[in-house]
Structures are given as C-alpha cells and as structure tokens.
Write a structure and sequence with these properties.
Layout lengths: L22 H31 L2 H24 L4 H4 L2
C-alpha cells in the first residue's frame, strides 16, 4: 500500500468540477433582480412627484432620487449572475 494521498494538490493545476445549480436558486436570483427593478420604478415615481410638487428641498431630493434611480438598474444587472457575460467583456 502506498502512503501517498489519492488527490495531490499542485499550485499550478486546478481541478474543474461540475456544479449543479438548482432551479430554485436561479428563480431566487430572478426575484431579487425584479425586486431591484421594482425599487427603481418606485424611486423614479417618488422623484417625479417631488419634482412636480416639491419646493427647493423637494427638487434637490428629486434630483438625488433620479440619479440613484438611474444607476440602480445597472447595479442590479451587474449583480445578476445571468447577466455576468455582458459585463465580462
């Protein structure tokens, strides 16, 4: 009998193992992505309401909400694993 281990690790070689992703994980990611997009729509609606009916502070808040609402969909797309191929260019 040999005393060497069955799997030897080397620093230069990695072993690729298949990973099985269950459908519930994929659907959970999609639900999270859709909730981020829903939040951006609500934030944009709040910004439009403040822009139309707010005073000076309301307009400043509307501008900040608009900026956040415009950048949040890109952030949510970068966090969604289904869209990782788009951002890996």
């Amino acid at each position: 009998m040999s005393t060497q281990p069955l799997l030897q690790r080397t620093a230069n070689k990695r072993i690729a193992l298949p990973i099985r992703v269950e459908p519930k994980v994929s659907f959970a990611n999609e639900r999270t992505f859709l909730s981020w997009l829903h939040f951006t729509v609500v934030l944009g609606g709040l910004a439009v309401g403040l822009l139309n009916f707010g005073d000076k502070v309301g307009k400043i808040s509307a501008a900040l909400f608009s900026i956040v609402g415009e950048h949040l969909p890109a952030f949510s797309m970068s966090r969604n694993p289904a869209n990782q191929s788009i951002f890996s260019l």
